[in-house]
Each structure stands twice: as C-alpha cells, then as structure tokens.
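BACKBONE STRUCTURE TOKENS:
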Amino acid sequence: MKNYTDFGDNIKQYLDDTEILDFINKQEPLKEVYEEIKDSPMACVVPLVFVVDPNRFELDLNIIVKHEKSDQFGQFEYYLIPDFINKQTNLFSLLNTLTISTQANQDDILNSISEQIKEIHFQTSSDYKPILELTDNFIIFKLTSHVVEKKKVENQLTGISGEFFVAAELAKRNFQVALTLGNAKGIDLFATNQLTEKIFEIEVKTLRKKPNCFTLNVERLKKDKIFVFVYLNEKETSPDFYVLKGEELLADKKHFYGSSLNTIRQTVNHGPLQIHKGRWDKLD
C-alpha cells in the first residue's frame, strides 16, 4: 500500500475542458464558485470540501484554479483529491505549484480547507479538533474525532441495548413497561406491576464486559428508584442483571462505591453487586 497519494494515478486534472464544465454545472456549490471567479481579472485558487460518506468521514477535496496567464496554463484547472482525510496526501507540491503560478497565499488555502472540514464535522460532533500537519513532503489532514465519534455511538448502542434487555425481562414477568429512551432525565423505564398496580422508576446502567465498574454519581441516587446494572456479555451469553433499590445504595455507599466515593467520577463496584444478581423480586 502506498503511503501517499500519487498525483498521476489519483488526481484528475482538466484544462479548460467540457468535462469539468459539465461537472461544475451539475453541482451548486461548484457552480456558484465558478460564476464568481470566471469573470474575475485576478488569478485565484478555490478549495472546496465535499462529503462523500458522512458515516465514515470520507471527504473529497476539489480545487478550482484560475490563472492570469491563460495562454500558458489554460484559464481553469480542476483537481479532485479523493478521500484525502486521514492519510498522507502530497498536497504540498500541488499547492506550491498553484501558489507560484497564481500568486495565491498558501496559508489562506490551507486555512480555508481546515475551516470547511471543521464546519462540516461540527454538524455531528462538537468534540472535533482539526489537526493539520506540514512536513517537507506532505500536508496531512487528520480528522481526529473519527474514533471519538465511533466510541460515542458504541456507548449509545450499549445503553439502549441494556434498556431493551431489562424491558424484555420485566415483560416476561408480566410488567407493563414504557421506555423513555432519554426523554425523561434519570429515568430509563417505567414498569407497572399488574398485580399491585405499583409503578417503578428504573434507571439502567449497562456495560459490555465485567468486572468493569458502573459510573453512577451519588447525587443521582433516590431511595424510591430501582437501579438495574447490566453486563451484556458476549453474543452467545445472556446478559447479567443486578437489581438494587436506591435505598440499598444510599444505606451503604462506602460498601458499593469504595474509594471512588470521594472522587469526581464515582463508580459502583462489581463485587458488592453479586448478591443482587437476578433479584427481580424487589419489584414485587
């Protein structure tokens, strides 16, 4: 596998060609830019970032170039750099050539590209921090939040999975169950015991593997609330459920939280939960 994009193999270049004009006219952002620069007396370099696959953060970079010396360079040039994010792309030599021939400012071009990437990605994540690395041979754009975003999605799916598993267990026991799916803060499920007509507020905490600890700040504890701690386990293994009343956690916080009780990130430990495994009878 190559470590960088080779211009000859991967970048299409058009010089005053009908193919690029057709392409520009079919895409509004390109068309608008073309209309702005075609009558300009000045040479310019206009970078445009396009989203190819928002789920995989695949972006293409389009560069439209207008030269003052149209007899030497052709009036317009167009470059397409496919999927230039998260890999070494030899934009350095391309931009050097373009800035020399047009007198454009390379820093302005780079800043424009970075800002466009930022604006596109801010629509999905405020955690994004763009990184731009310049070396002697490469300009490297890194979309650093790809992993962060993936982790965030995994955490959301883990939480939702736990809530549905708990709802299924309660339904098997003839409870009427309503999932809030985040619409009510601090409450994931409402469960009604059809024999006693008592309604329980349930908060579900889910992890994929044990013996990890469950993040749960003490200030969220309420004596009348039910807390269900879930380990999803491997696909072939059924989840483990640990059922506690809020009053149980409040009565012996040191036992359940251990040393984390005096920290910012308070966690319920795996060990103290063991005797509460499968204790659905607490909802009778």
Notes: Residues 4-143 form one domain. Residues 145-172 form the longest helix (28 residues).
